[in-house]
Write a structure and sequence with these properties.
Elements: H1 4-13, H2 24-32, H3 40-47, H4 51-61, H5 75-82, H6 84-95, H7 105-132, H8 136-145, H9 150-160, H10 165-186, H11 191-194, H12 196-199, H13 212-223, H14 237-240, H15 248-266
């Protein structure tokens, strides 16, 4: 009997699975972000071609996250205030929202659910990064992209239009990690981000120090429904975070306001 998972694997075997491409603004930023001559004017010209991302960066620059008394109304000033690396990472992150769309109404609902879940994970990671002494904007990107592998699965289901929603969901959970790694490698992201789809569900993963994948693991478990949430004592990343399993909920209570603020600011 034909299954979505089998069709996905067959498409992979024949190198016939369409992978999503980075939005143009993200591609342009990736192409120039390692250029030592990149300046605020150049980055501003790239980002201003995407009005939604420009508006988001201005919103961030005027938010309590930055705590600036004078209102920033100019994109170049926002980039100067926030920093070029920060704005480049956030612009790449927010531009991926346009990938989570489908013409099929039922698939569009699933796309929206995955985006909202990814955004919630990303906002948790953004706040956790400060506690873990990691880079918040990189943690945000890691959280947003951890389930990017679901996109080609939904695209395949849309194309064939003969699979149930239950089969779609099951296939996403089984195959998205492998596809996510393939997509992020194809996009030439560093291993610190490209490895996350395959590893964020491994609660026993050993590392000598905390990394971006640990933040995604912790954030993902935090927002899981209670009946699916793992005991914090089973998640090795908690110790690397410097927390004790018995006090994780208290730690999150202390961060709740910052996480909510991040969600309000980054929500597209």
């Amino acid at each position: 009997m034909r299954t979505l998972a089998a069709d996905i694997m067959k498409a992979i075997e024949h190198d016939n699975l369409a992978l999503p491409t980075l939005p143009e603004i993200a591609l342009r930023i990736r192409q120039c972000e390692n250029d030592p001559n990149l300046d605020i004017i150049t980055l501003t010209r790239i980002i201003e071609h995407d009005p939604a991302t420009s508006a988001q960066l201005l919103r961030i620059a005027n938010s309590p996250l930055v705590r600036r008394e004078v209102k920033v109304a100019d994109l170049s000033k926002a980039i100067s205030l926030l920093g070029m690396n920060y704005c480049a990472r956030v612009a790449i992150s927010l531009s991926t929202r346009q990938l989570f769309n489908s013409k099929n109404p039922s698939s569009e609902i699933r796309m929206r659910e995955i985006w909202q879940h990814s955004l919630e994970v990303a906002c948790h990671c953004y706040v956790l990064a400060d506690k873990a002494k990691l880079v918040p904007e990189e943690a945000f990107l890691a959280g947003l992209l951890h389930k990017i592998g679901a996109l080609p699965i939904i695209a395949m289901a849309d194309k064939e239009d003969c699979y149930s929603l239950e089969e779609l969901n099951t296939t996403i959970e089984k195959i998205h990690p492998m596809l996510g790694e393939s997509i992020l490698n194809h996009w030439q992201f560093p291993r610190s981000i490209a490895d996350i789809p395959q590893n964020y569900c491994d609660q026993y993963r050993y590392m000598s120090s905390i990394d971006l994948c640990d933040l995604v693991t912790i954030a993902h478990n935090k927002i899981c429904p209670e009946d699916k949430r793992l005991p914090w004592s089973d998640i090795a990343a908690i110790e690397r975070m410097g927390w004790h399993a018995s006090t994780v909920d208290e730690e999150f209570n202390l961060l709740a306001a910052k996480i909510e603020l991040a969600y309000d600011i980054f929500e597209c």
